[in-house]
Amino acid sequence: MARYNLRCPLSDEDARMLRAGDVVFLSGTIYTARDAAHKRLCDMLDRGDPLPFDCKGAVIYYVGPTPAPEGQAVGAAGPTTSYRMDSYAPRLYSLGCKASIGKGKRSEAVRQSLEEYGGVYFGATGGAGALLSMCIEAAKVIAFDDLGPEAVRELTVRNFPVLVINDAHGGNFYVTPDRKAAGLE
Amino acid sequence: MRSIPADAVIKAVEDMCIHANRYLPQDVRDCLERSSASETSPAAREVFRQIRENYELAEKSGLPLCQDCGLAVLLVDVGDDVHVEGMNLREAINEGVRRGYDKGLLRKSACDPFTRVNTKDNTPAIIHFDMVPGDKIHIRFMAKGGGSENMSRVTMLTPAQGWPGIRNFVLNLVAEAGPNPCPPTIIGIGIGGTFDYAPVLAKKALLRKLGDVNPDPRLDAMEKELLADINRLGIGPMGLGGVTTSLDVKIAVAPCHIASLPLAVNIQCHSARHEEVIL
Ligand code: SF4
Predict the structure, then answer these.
(1) Interchain CB distance below 8 Å, A178 and B234
(2) Judging by DSSP bridges, how do beta strands A99-102 and A59-61 pair with one another?
(3) 3-state SS of chain A: helix, strand, coil percent to 5?
(4) Is the pLDDT score of A83 beyond 90?
(5) How many angstroms does the Cα of residue B271 sit away from the middle of ligand 1?
(6) Fold for domain B147-274?
(7) Which end of chain B has the least Cβ crowding within 10 Å, N or C?
(8) A147 exposed, middle or buried (CB, 10 Å; 0-12, 13-18, 19+)?
(9) Residue range(s) of every CATH 3.30.1330 domain in chain B
């Protein structure tokens, strides 16, 4: 399990080099989107409209931060559960997105799309919203302002800590529950 | 009859919303500390380290512990001999939530179930009222996040399924939920009552202190057995593997219909934010 410092947007090579279990510190530009934003992004794609950010190499962070206090870019900003974005994610990976950041399991379809398009899925520590916000230096709403916490924001991050959960080679870092040890048949 | 001005209720609720979202209760900290000492894998230890750094930072900086400041859930025991002056009690509580989430810079997460349009002030709060003897109002507040709430379930077992059926359902649910509800979790279990009442029992159970003893020795034994079995699943903190999948199991029971065995399992994440006040 390696440790890397990587720039965002991510290059193809960087994304393919990562393996499940690697610890990565991300710096650069990433984008936020959660449930409502994903729906709108996919509606835009259906209409043939351009997306509010360049998909190439994009890292999408599943987060809806709390309002920013004076002098800070955002408030608490930890990951939300990723499976709710599973129905949208393969489409974004197919358009060149390289990574998403969230918490929790991904669907088979998402994991296949990582292999197909050379993407990764990062996990960040759920419930560490105050701590993670310290790694966010700037934030700007770039779309869907009316969605409030769910708006799409461009974030500038520095040494944002994530763990590779699913890599582009079928690797998965989440453990399989030991049902037998727990006395389940 | 004793009278309490509505303003006192509003202020108390406002304060609880803000404080609970910044300050992780001491019993939760202590339990996290004990559990972290038993983890050996670097990934599990790192999760515990981040959780600790996070609650210390939240307390110091005033940032919320988690970006999901929850729906406001309130369990309110109203004494028979007390009356709120100047505003309906439900409205006063909602006003307190409105002010607390605004002033505390907390995230407002309440929305219309179909349009998904945000109500913008985190109301309406989810309020469970109970009438009790006395002239006090006891308000318990929980900031209940969506991630762990989404992994919660209610089911109607048959009486024949009994404890083995309950045990299986809980273990399967926790196994299925895996990393999603931000483990280490706390498992609130409501057994009995009706389809609607079992989840209320489960929620109330979540308000007990971690590491306490259930006054009913039969339930206490069940809690300990289930906790040990859950932790044998090996899911660990954030699903990265380890011996701490859950911090505690809390069971509350009520009599039920002769035909039923209602079961509700309410999962609470490690960010177990709650507070109470007696007015
Ligand atoms: S499950 Fe709890 S700790 Fe995790 S993101 Fe939701 S509220 Fe925060």
Answers:
(1) yes
(2) parallel
(3) 25, 30, 45
(4) yes
(5) 6
(6) 60s Ribosomal Protein L30; Chain: A; (3.30.1330)
(7) N
(8) buried
(9) 147-274
A176 contacts: CB under 8 Å, gap ≥ 6? none
Across the A:B interface, residue pairs with CB atoms under 8 Å apart total 164
Could A128 and B147 be called an inter-chain contact, meaning their C-beta atoms sit closer than 8 Å? Answer: no
Domains delineated in chain A: 3-166 (3.20.130.10)
B269–A contact, CB cutoff 8 A: yes
Determine whether A44 is exposed, middle or buried from the number of CB atoms within 10 Å of its CB (0-12, 13-18, 19+).
Answer: middle
Question: Residues A117-142: pLDDT tens digits?
Answer: 999 999 999 999 999 999 999 999 99
Residue A43 buriedness (CB in 10 A; 0-12 / 13-18 / 19+): exposed
Question: How far is the first Cα of chain A from the last one, in angstroms, to the nearest whole number?
Answer: 33
- B181: its two tokens: 């509800």
Annotation says A38 is catalytic = yes
Could you read off the pLDDT of B244-259 as tens digits, one per residue? 999 999 999 999 999 9
Q: How far apart are CA A146 and CA A40, in angstroms?
A: 12
